[in-house]
From TrEMBL:
The gene is LOC117360104. The keyword Transport applies. This is START domain-containing protein 1. Keywords: Lipid transport, Lipid-binding, Mitochondrion, Steroidogenesis, Transport. The keyword NADP does not apply. Pathway: Steroid metabolism; cholesterol metabolism. GO terms for molecular function: cholesterol binding; cholesterol transfer activity. It comes from Geotrypetes seraphini (Gaboon caecilian). Pfam families: START.
Length: 311
């Protein structure tokens, strides 16, 4: 009944949308966003795939069955929408932390410009904030940190990175396995939702723990949780080829002091605190080396001839 009713509504405005081609994609995108909000709030439990059916009906009636613009504004089910909403909520949380200027304690400050601070927040626990300047444009840096996330294990010290699901252009569900330092503790793995958002010239990539049927807990791995991670990529005002890189990180490694937990990978909290700051420092150093060796971008000269320069 609902598909038929919605199809009737589409039919009423069908000719108007066909004639106003310049507004068609925008109108459908806005319609899609509002319908997904409504369905998620009111009926996603009863009709888990209803958003997918509505999307197909609208595309068919308006003649936009293949449109990448619409793909980034629609989600295929209420389950996918839940991931998107989770990512958006994490971004709002990260924005609030980034605006907090007081209460940060210096953990590390290196001569190469990398600094790490920390603070304690009631719901997240200890949050680390690393900052550095990276000699690379923000847009291309975003590509390495989000679009090419599965390649991260080629240059960063992680054993495995897999994208389990891509939802539109801005949301990913991933599975990551962290290396075990010196085989002293059991390996940890993470299932996370990542969400990317541009605000002005600044790009944000946030992540937090989630659950996915595609990757239930694995034997031999301790399922840890990312409370919050956020990359902030902001071009320098005086040099757009360089980026101020800020990284918020809060992780629950599932530490417990029981004797049974010790056998399964217990880690003393002071070691965790030290390890987290060094994890961020090592990541930035690996990222810098990776970009220095692999990033060559084309540059257009005034005479219109392309040549390549390292960034």
């Amino acid at each position: 009944m609902l598909p038929a009713t919605f199809k009737l509504c589409c039919g009423i405005s069908h000719e108007h949308l066909r004639q106003v081609t310049g507004l068609k994609r925008t109108a459908v995108a806005v319609l899609g966003q509002n319908m997904t909000k409504l369905m998620f709030k009111e009926s996603h439990c009863l009709f888990p795939d209803i958003l997918h059916h509505i999307q197909k009906i609208v595309r068919k009636d308006i003649g936009t069955e293949q449109d990448s613009y619409l793909d980034s504004h629609w989600v295929s089910s209420s389950a996918d929408l839940a991931y998107v909403k989770h990512g958006e909520a994490t971004l709002q949380c990260a924005m609030g932390i980034l605006q907090q200027l007081e209460g940060w304690k210096v953990e590390v400050h290196q001569e190469n410009g990398i600094s790490v601070q920390s603070t304690f927040l009631p719901k997240l626990g200890k949050v680390f904030r690393a900052e550095a300047v990276v000699d690379f444009p923000a847009d291309q840096l975003h590509s390495h940190l989000f679009d090419k996330m599965e390649e991260m294990n080629d240059w960063n010290h992680v054993s495995h990175v897999e994208v389990l699901q891509r939802i539109g252009k801005d949301t990913l569900v991933t599975h990551e396995i962290a290396q075990s330092p010196g085989n002293l503790i059991d390996q940890r793995d993470f299932v996370s939702v990542h969400h990317s958002k541009r605000r002005g010239s600044t790009i944000y990539v946030v992540g937090t723990a989630t659950y996915s049927d595609l990757m239930p807990p694995q034997k031999g791995l301790i399922r840890a949780e990312t409370g919050l991670t956020c990359f902030v990529l902001k071009p320098l005002e005086n040099d757009k080829k360089k980026t101020k890189f800020t990284w918020l990180l809060s992780t629950d490694l599932k530490v417990c002091s029981s004797s049974r937990a010790r056998e399964k990978g217990w880690i003393p909290k002071p070691i965790i605190s030290c390890a987290m700051s060094h994890t961020q420092i090592n990541f930035i150093n690996h990222l810098r080396r990776h970009l220095a060796t692999s990033a060559v971008q084309p540059e257009l000269q005034q005479d219109g001839v392309f040549h390549c320069t390292t960034v």
